[in-house]
Each structure stands twice: as C-alpha cells, then as structure tokens.
Amino acid sequence: MRFDDTYSGKVFIKSHPNYEESKAVIYGMPMDWTVSFRPGSRFGPAKIREVSIGLEEYSPYLDRDLDDVKFFDAGDIPLPFGNAEQSLEIINNYIHQLLKDDKIPVGLGGEHLVSLPVMKAVAEKYDDLAVIHMDAHTDLREHYEGYEYSHSTPIRKIADVIGPKNVYSFGIRSGMKEEFDWAKENGMHISKFEVLEPLKKVLPTLDGRPVYITIDIDVLDPAHAPGTGTVDAGGITSRELLAAIHAIAASGVNVVGFDLVEVAPVYDHSDQTANTASKLIREMLLGWVR
C-alpha cells in the first residue's frame, strides 16, 4: 500500500513500518489543478512530512506519545497532472481500499477539492455520517467559472450526498452571499468567524455518530499560516485550532477519517505553516485515533 514509485522516502515522524498492523494510514494528495488564485498546495504533503522531524513525539496537551498510536505513512498518491476528474477517481478508489482494510484515512492536501472523493467514500461505508468542516471559505459553490469540480465546491458536493443538515462548518469568514443563503435555507450549520465555542455546542449532538473532519489550513489567520493559496484576514489563532482538536478528542466523537489541506509551502519560506500543520496532524493522530 505504499507508493514506492513516486515517494520521496520521507515519512511522518514515528510512522509505523507495517501497514497491516496500523490503525490509521497517512497518504498525500498532491493536487492543485483547480485553484483560482495561487497554486502550490501539491507540495504541501511532502513539506509537512519533512518538517515533522522537528516535532516532539510527546503531546503535553493529551499526555500521549506517537508510540501510542500505530499509523502508517503510505506516501503520496500518484495523480495525473492537470486531470482533476481522473485524480478524484484515483483518490476515491484508494480510500475505498483503506476502508475495506478497516483503516482510518488521514489525508494531506493538496487543494480542498481532494477531500471530496474521500468524504464520498467514507459516506458509502458509514450510515448517518456527519462532516465537520473548518475553513475560511464556505466552499459551497455549485460550480466555479463553469467547472463543476473546483476547490470552491467540495462542501456543497458532499452536502448534496449526505444532506446539508449533516454538515457543520466553523470559522467561515468568506463566501458568496448565495452560498450563505443556500446554507441557511437548507438547514446547514455555519458558524461564522469562530470555531471553538460553537464547536463545543455541536459536539454533544454528534455523540455516537461517525464523523469525518476536514480542515483547511486557511481557517487560521494569515499571521499564523501565510503559506496557503487563498489567504483571508481575520482568522483564528493556532492556539484556538489546537483547542478545537482537543475538544473533539475529549468529546469521544467517533472520528472515522480526517484531512488537513491547502498548505502551500512556496509562500512561506520560514516553514511556519508546514510546521504548524505537522503539529496539528500529531495532535489529531493522538487525539482522534483510538
């Protein structure tokens, strides 16, 4: 299950050597074929792995160590450059195999469109799936400049599959008026600007349900994450995002998969964004994989 033909040889720190024995599987989705502003997120997965070597393996927040979690880093899925629809199909097929093997998928993006085939595959396996979405943008467009598949459309597409009432967005501070109107008219939960406090109110309502979580790094203020394709002022702090991850862990919600997308290292020569992303992944692994 490791993509040896395209893989750089670097793995996320403390990755387990054995796929069969691992509960979770990290995989990269190096795609930025539909971005509307700045490309470069296809380099995100490799950079997140590269800087993870600087992480401590122990989380003082959760009192757990990466040795406590068996996860396998499969490398980046080989995707055909520029072909969005075929890339989505390849990702979907790979996730179906992970789920068949009873693994928890842990995705590294890549633009946010790569989350769509993952969520669709997870929704096929788990009835009554709920999606938690943290982002600066609504991502609720039906199409973008005539294209059905775009980084602006994944949340609308998954809402059409599982129902808008099962999608919970947090930290939203940008989008078309029509997107906000559609969410309100169809009963979708959107928390504008904030993440932690509204999330805490929602989590008890998700008790016992399978939950997929997708996080766009641009939910953070550009001061905390400048290395992303579409920066948007007014975001949350990295401390609040960590607290949100820990709140989910403490809630006992059944997390059946998750991803972190839109890290574009070319715009952050200090690697601040990638380092933050690596720490977030560590906390998600330790908090959500049981």
TrEMBL record:
Its cofactor is Mn(2+). It comes from Planococcus lenghuensis. This is Agmatinase. Binds 2 manganese ions per subunit. Pathway: Amine and polyamine biosynthesis; putrescine biosynthesis via agmatine pathway; putrescine from agmatine: step 1/1. It catalyses: agmatine + H2O = urea + putrescine. InterPro entries: Agmatinase-rel, Ureohydrolase, Ureohydrolase_dom_sf, Ureohydrolase_Mn_BS. Coiled coil: none annotated. Belongs to the arginase family. Agmatinase subfamily. Catalyzes the formation of putrescine from agmatine. Mn(2+) binds at residues 112, 135, 137, 139, 216, 218. One of its GO terms (molecular function) is metal ion binding.
